[in-house]
Amino acid sequence: MEKILVVDDERSLREVLSIMLTRAGYAVTEASDGEEAIGHVNREIFDLVITDLRMPKADGMAVLKAVKSSSPETVVLVLTAFATADSAVDAMKQGAYDYLTKPFQVDEVQLIIRNALEKRRLSTENILLKREMASQSSFAQIVGQSESMQKVFDVVRKVADAKSNVLICGESGTGKELVARAIHYNSARSPMPFVAVNCSAVPETLLESELFGHMKGSFTGAMANKAGLFEIANGGTIFLDEIGDTTPTIQVKLLRVIQEREFRRVGGTQDVKVDVRIVAATNKDLEKAVADGSFREDLYYRLDVIPIRLPPLRLRTGDIPLLVKHFLEKFSQESGKPAPVLTPEAMHVLLGHEWRGNVRELENLLERVVAFSVGAPVSDEDIRGWLHRVVIPQQHGAPTDLPEDGVDLEALINGIEKDLLLQALERTQWVKKKAARLLKLNTRSFRYRLEKYAIKGGRD
Predict the structure, then answer these.
(1) Using CA atoms, how far apart are residues 281 and 304, in angstroms rounded to an integer?
(2) How far apart are CA 121 and CA 125, in angstroms?
(3) pLDDT tens digit sequence for 278-335
(4) Which domain-ending residue is among 115, 132, 149?
(5) What is the tally of structural domains in the chain?
(6) pLDDT tens, residue by residue, 175-200
(7) Whose CA is closest to 349, among 312, 382, 327?
(8) Whole domain around residue 290: which residue ranges?
(9) Claim to verify: residue 179 and residue 284 sit in the same structural domain
(10) Which of 282, 432, 453, 433 is nearest to 364 (CA)?
């Protein structure tokens, strides 16, 4: 339910607007002057603020300034009783969405409010799209015809429209986020947001703010009120990846959200109610974590209502030829190159590999194969080379022979860089600080490269 703050010192007008908006299905808060309104704005995030310009104690411009300072995404609509509306135009220059001259028609107000809230919704969706940078995945993105994967598909179909929380367990790289997306996009919640957060990738000091939002001034750097991911996901699904890495403090707060369907922003005093389905994932043994006291038992049982266990790739090798075809076509299309052909011996090597990194490891390998492909069939020796080392054609300034038909230099360099990042992560059991040290990179540079190549997972 969208929240609107109505600010006017004229009681009758305030009540008319409040009744009209409440009947339209909005949650309405009233303020009789600018000072009271600023107090509300500092304690709570509104979707829309409707404010008169001339009021006692603090005028509408002060309210506008407070809104834009504490919650820049909130839309402000100003009211003025003066036909010239000069001050209202000034307010628009300061960030107001639109203005209305008193007296006004009810139909006119309703139309402007609908348009203003649509602007707010589009702004929120834009933020979400920037965070996701991924397509709306469904079953089409999950490749597998093995019996174990068909069982997973069957569970997803059966539980997609349920309200119960889901816990997806599986080794790193088995496709837990793809399954979470499939659950969401095959459910009645699909028109609403799917929000993913890797709990192990965000420091504890920031994770609470990331999940639940914060109020301006609640900590150093909190320059404005911020809605958290639970709020953004309202009506949809939130995917909590690597839930097993959360601290006891975060676990307590997550338990409250599940039990009460509400939370409190960092530094806030108001409870925020949400309707969010939680899909969590982990590569850890949470039952063991419960036994040794590192994970709350009550939280575990509230998350594990619908368990989904993803098999490792080494236990479903029959899916490898399908995955190979899928990834070769995908990366060939992205690079504009013909899909390379693997010899039967090369496929035999892939079928016999251990795949400790599961589907992610196979995907990264095939991306390298496409990047370095020169048209000849890919042999078993080629595959073994890519599995165990990175072939760097130039060392310490030594000259390199350029093939007669040239080479895609950018793809070559990117392939080598991504391969080294993955090797460093695998060698350090995906501990990012250790991997960065192996590559003589500082943490910021290392994280930038992980984002560049969309490498997810691991811990600090």
Answers:
(1) 10
(2) 6
(3) 999 999 999 999 999 999 999 999 999 999 999 999 999 999 999 999 999 989 988 8
(4) 132
(5) 3
(6) 999 999 999 988 999 888 999 999 98
(7) 382
(8) 139-311
(9) yes
(10) 453
